[in-house]
Design a protein that fits this description.
6 helices; mainly alpha; globular
Length: about 120
């Protein structure tokens, strides 16, 4: 268990602790070591958006594009309005050579970003 995670901590707090450990590995240039910590975080909290996005990035960075693509699609199914997931989908599809689908995902991400700005009142 990562430093700071205790058995009496809530699953969400434990998931956050695993995420912190993973981010430390990522910052140190050890993405492979981040994967198990992120998987542990998601085992505790399957809807942990930050852990999911971190895992997506690590999978992409380590060349595990098919796994990243499957997880991205799962994230979008769980939260269709996740603009960052649509952006990641676009990046992955582009790297895999599916440019038309990548462009469609990028357009969807842009629309979702605009909707988010309108809801929050941050449009200028």
């Amino acid at each position: 268990m990562p430093a700071g995670a205790t058995t009496s901590a809530s699953p969400a707090a434990q998931a956050d602790a695993f995420l912190d450990t993973a981010l430390d590995h990522m910052a140190a240039g050890n993405p492979q070591q981040a994967i198990p910590a992120l998987q542990n975080a998601l085992a505790l909290d399957p809807h942990h958006a930050a852990a999911t996005h971190a895992l997506l990035r690590v999978l992409e960075d380590t060349g595990r594009l098919e796994e990243a693509l499957a997880l991205t699609r799962q994230r979008i199914a769980a939260d269709p309005d996740d603009a960052l997931a649509h952006t990641r989908l676009s990046i992955l599809l582009q790297r895999m050579g599916d440019i038309p689908a990548a462009e469609a995902a990028a357009a969807r991400a842009k629309v979702l970003g605009w909707k988010s700005q309108l809801r929050s009142g941050t449009c200028s």
